[in-house]
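re: ur question from yesterday

yeah so i grabbed the chain u mentioned. its 136 aa long if i counted rite. heres the sequnce exactly as i have it in my notes:
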Amino acid sequence: MRSPQRGSSATELVLVAPVIVLLLMFVVFLGRTTATQAQLQDAAHSAARAASLARTPSDATTAARQIADAALGSRTITCNPLTVIVDTSAFRPGGAVSVTVTCSVNLADLGALHIPGAETMSTSFTEPIDRFEGLR
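ran it thru and got these structure tokens back, copy pasting raw so excuse formatting
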């Protein structure tokens, strides 16, 4: 007597394979967004630190933009566009400087998940300015 289950494993494989592929793509999506967010936080922190060490607000803005660009340029993510906003309204000894880094990350290669082609991520960091800054 023949088994009625003959060939069913091939059918199951055909039905399960697309689900496994979608799950793997979702894992890639989560990994990409998590890694990008961590890299943005690192860039914002480094940029705020560089800005807090500058002598003038314009030097702080320049330093923050250069450091953020360099920090993200050496990573695997590509921001299109990369925006660095530096708040120097409290730039004085004992004050603080804030940096916001915004990045639009391309996700078009994960189109099977029906997610937008790009996701905009943003993070901020505030660094205190040494209160004895003027004594250097």
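noticed a couple things. The radius of gyration is 24 Å. also Residues 8-52 form the longest helix (45 residues).
anyway ttyl
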